[in-house]
Amino acid sequence: RQNIAEFLNRLEELGLWPAQLRTTIIALIPKKVGKRPIRLPVALVRLWERTRVDVVRRWRETAFRDYNWAARGRSAQAAVWKQSVAIEAAAARGHIVIKHLYDLVKAYEMVPLENVWRAGLKRHFPPELLRLELEAFAATRTLLVNGACSQPVETLSALVAGGSFATDFMFLVLVDPCDEILREHPGIE
Questions:
Q1: Structure confidence at residue 95 (pLDDT)
Q2: Are strands 140-145 and 23-30 parallel, antiparallel or unpaired?
């Protein structure tokens, strides 16, 4: 165990994964419409992510936003129910209400890794973790569909859902636009 811990600490200092670990499987999970790509990194990357969850959890506490329903102990379903009850109550009082639900289609796949890097530095995400995790996201990708694997593909273009910090990275790139909307329209929930 000590050797593995020392190895992972050294990789974190270097900010690079060895070539043998720079690969990830992208599994396509069926949805009602289409398929959702999910990142399945190699075991040592997953182990490293698990060892750093507490560090990222402490960062999450400093970056908490009340509107972030992807935060620990919260859910999208709870957000929808909360808004539904608030809208019903306002309508019952005779208020004019407007409701709108946004579903970000292909959201992860639309986020370039360099945007995550800049947002992470701005929001003080632990830089050594940010660098090594983005290196893992930039690993060669092999698509897995119905048990068949594609040829490996190199890309630096986008996040993929999956892994320990994917939702944190999505939060990093969305927090500034969401904060700006609330500054411009303080009555919005």
A1: 87
A2: parallel
- 135 in Cβ contact with 19 (< 8 Å): no
Judged against a pLDDT cut of 70, whether residue 122 lies above it is answered with: yes
Percent of the chain topping pLDDT 90: 56
Strands 23-30 and 148-149: unpaired
More confidently predicted of 61 and 156: 61
Q: In what order do the strands lie in the sheet with 148-149?
A: 35-41, 23-30, 140-145, 148-149
pLDDT in tens, 93-112: 998 887 776 666 678 888 99
Query: What element of type H or E holds 144?
Result: strand 140-145
State the pLDDT confidence band at 7, using cuts at 50, 70 and 90.
Answer: very high
Give the span between the Cα atoms of 153 and 6, in whole angstroms.
30
SS (H, E, C) 10-51: HHHHHCCCCHHHCEEEEEEEECCCCEEEEEEECHHHHHHHHH
Which residues fall within 8 angstroms of residue 117, CB to CB, at 6 or more apart?
A: 130, 134
Q: Which of 86, 67, 88 is nearest to 76 (CA)?
A: 67
Contacts for 179 with CB less than 8 Å, ≥ 6 apart: 65
For residues 25 and 132, give the distance between their C-alpha atoms in angstroms, rounded to a whole number.
Answer: 18
Look up residue 148 and give its two tokens: 């068949």
